[in-house]
Amino acid sequence: MVMNINQNHVAKSRPSGPVLVTGVKGSGKTSIGIKKTAFLLENYCLDPNDKILFVNNSKSFVDHSAYLRKRIEQEKEKTLMDLIQATQNNICISSIDGIVYQYYKAYCLSKNLSLEIYDEKNYFLEILYQGIDTIALKYPEITYLDKRFKHFLLAEIEWIRACGYTDEQQYQNADRIGLQDLEWEGPYKLNKNSQSRKAIFELMNYFSDYCRSKGKIDYVEANIMAMELMKAGKCEHYTHVIIDDCHELTKIQLDLIINLYKPKAYSSITFLYEDHTDCEPKSWLGNGRPFTTVGFDMTGRSKTLHIDQNEYYTENRQSCSQYNSNCDISYREIAKTEKLIEFIKTFLEENLSDKDFSIVFKNENTRFELYKANNLVTIFRKNE
């Protein structure tokens, strides 16, 4: 894995608690997470019980997990040298769905429950209708407590649970960000400390209780059950946690991951955050909420990656750039050697008399480095 100087610095920085790495798609955040995992495994898993969690939001978890593990193993060959294979057991690579399912099943086992995660829209609509009929009798003045607004009500009670709000006052005080982005008819705003929120919260409780009583729950309810088990102290702990695509996660999903983090003097938790992307209304950090809402102050702890969008256009070529006070640094992967030669020729023609630069090409057998600094060009080549 070839990285520029600043990316490598972020990946190999000494762990000291929370770190935020932001950048647009393609700027190298996941690559930094992989390299950081290998670096931490070698240098900052000092106790036999120290473990690393790399969690992502991939929906194709099996394939993505195998891909990430392979890349970490490749990085290990370069940076971990003769570290024994057993240390791979200290790394857990999981999707957020995998974590939820693991602790949801453990919760069911601890409570001797037989539940099924069910995904049938009409089934849940029928439960919602029963809840509306029941709760509307108590709040006849609430306009939106009506079957005509079923999509809005389903989305709202899902949002409440996805935030992990178990107390009505939490919901009453919450900034309901993203409500105006819903694509169906409903209010653009729900006033804080209102009867509308009170009624909707009661509808949410009715919905959750009824689903549990019938043995069929939705995925969000499984999140809640997993959190209940973690709050009881029945979970693993990790010295280092790396959260890829943290902007996509809900509040309860973030809380689930953070509950697995056990701070030590040399521990770390790294958030990889994608800038300038549209997120679902349920996502927590992706809708502009500060990291203090999940318990971390990122002041002075964030690194930003930049990408040159004009150069990001070829399928077999990826590029990103990192700016600091002294220079512009660009990173580019080119799959085919002939394309690399063509790129170098063009680059030299356009930039040889302009400014300092470096070019690195590496395959399994050869490393080729070309530097220009102070009007000098150095070519270094070696067989590995």
Secondary-structure map:
Blueprint: H1 5-11, E1 17-23, H2 29-43, E2 52-56, H3 61-79, E3 91-95, H4 96-111, E4 116-117, H5 121-136, H6 150-162, H7 168-173, H8 195-214, E5 216-217, H9 219-231, E6 240-243, H10 251-259, E7 268-274, E8 302-304, E9 317-323, E10 328-334, H11 337-351, E11 357-362, E12 366-373, E13 376-383
Parallel strand pairs: 1-7, 1-8, 2-3, 2-6, 4-5, 6-7
Antiparallel strand pairs: 9-10, 11-12, 12-13
Overall description:
The protein has 384 residues and is an alpha/beta fold. The chain has helices at 5-11, 29-43, 61-79, 96-111, 121-136, 150-162, 168-173, 195-214, 219-231, 251-259, 337-351; strands spanning 17-23, 52-56, 91-95, 116-117, 216-217, 240-243, 268-274, 302-304, 317-323, 328-334, 357-362, 366-373, 376-383. A hairpin with a 2-residue loop joins strand 12 and strand 13. Helix 6 packs across helix 8 (195-214). The longest helix has 20 residues, at 195-214.
Please report the number of helical segments.
Answer: 11
**Helicity range of the residues?**
25-40%
Separation of termini? Answer: 15 Å
Mean pLDDT: 81
Order of helices and strands: HEHEHEHEHHHHEHEHEEEEHEEE
Please tell me the CATH architecture of the largest domain by its name. 3-Layer(aba) Sandwich
Largest sheet descriptor: 6 strands, parallel
Uncertain runs with pLDDT below 50, 5 residues or more?
A: 78-87, 308-331
Q: Characterize the quaternary organization of these chains.
A: single chain
Tally of strands:
13
Structural domain tally: 3
Q: Look at the structure and give the CATH class of the largest domain.
A: Alpha Beta
